Amino acid sequence: MQKLFFLLSIFLSAATLSAQLKAPIASPRAKLSQNIGLVNITVDYSRPSKKGRTIFGSLVPYNKIWRTGANQATTFSVSDDIKINNQLVPKGEYHIYSVPREKRLDLIVYKKTDKWGSLKEFDESLIVARVVSDFIELPFSVETFEISFDNISNNGSTLNLIWDNMLAIYYIDALTKDKMVNNIKNTLSKNPKPSDYQKAALYYYEEGLDKEKAYEWINLAFESYKEPKYWQLRVKALVYNYYGKKREALKIAKQGLKQAKKSDAPDGLNTLSLLVDMLSK
């Protein structure tokens, strides 16, 4: 019996030790993934909150390395080459650190290491890019530190860091134009589909590139469309207008609007109605 009680006490003690109290994390981890042009960018970081404290110059001291968040270092991954403030960041996974100054925030893209948290000093050989943004003082306070992407286009976006009443903005160039022109050239040289011609024409229209090529490609696409859909007709109308054939573009847009009405497609009705109105002026 004593042996049984002894074994039971060991079991209960082990169970007590293995039990862990779950509690809220003060600076919860967040992961942000954004497609920009042809590149996917991922940021993995911890989000501390202000909690009544003075942030820059106090909790986050000036002129010292900050992990750009809390807890473990912030990671920054890019699926292809980009530029930040015109500095090249090759495809790969990095840590990003920053150094707050009184009027600006220096952002450092750093080769990933096994260092946890912040750094005492930089190894200059591991710095991939060092970019600067002047602080923009906001008329309000943001409680929780946030990294975000904004002003997203085919070619790039802004990378925004905001906390308390301070905002820092960096400019990402996704290097899309050169990549897309090469992709289009390669794709159209290898037995392209009608949709490839259409995508190529639409891209050249959106980016203000060669009108002749855009017009040629959209016509090649439509050679294979027996019953074009309303969204295909919308693209054709846009490209025709870009090429200078406004009257023909209006006819095509009206045809697309008719198709959208038949399909009972609210998005098509809206976009094509706007296009018809624009081309009618």
Features:
6-stranded antiparallel β-sheet, 7 helices, 36% helix, Serine Threonine Protein Phosphatase 5, Tetratricopeptide repeat, 4-stranded antiparallel β-sheet, 281 residues, alpha+beta, 30% strand, 2 domains
Low-confidence stretches: none
Q: Which strand order do you get reading across the main beta sheet?
A: 1-2-3-6-7-8
Terminal CA distance reads 98 Å
Biggest pleated-sheet summary: 6 strands, antiparallel
| Overall SS class | alpha+beta
3D architecture notes:
The chain contains 7 helices and 10 strands. The chain is of the alpha+beta class. The protein has 2 domains: 29-173, no CATH class; 176-280, Tetratricopeptide repeat domain (Serine Threonine Protein Phosphatase 5, Tetratricopeptide repeat). The strands form 2 sheets. A 6-stranded antiparallel beta sheet has the order 1-2-3-6-7-8, with no helix packed on it. Strands 5-4-10-9 form a 4-stranded antiparallel beta sheet, with no helix packed on it. Helix 3 (194-206) packs across helix 5 (230-243) and helix 6 runs antiparallel to helix 7. The longest helix is centred in the C-terminal third of the chain and has 18 residues, at 246-263. It is elongated. The protein starts with a helix and ends with a helix. The mean pLDDT is 92.
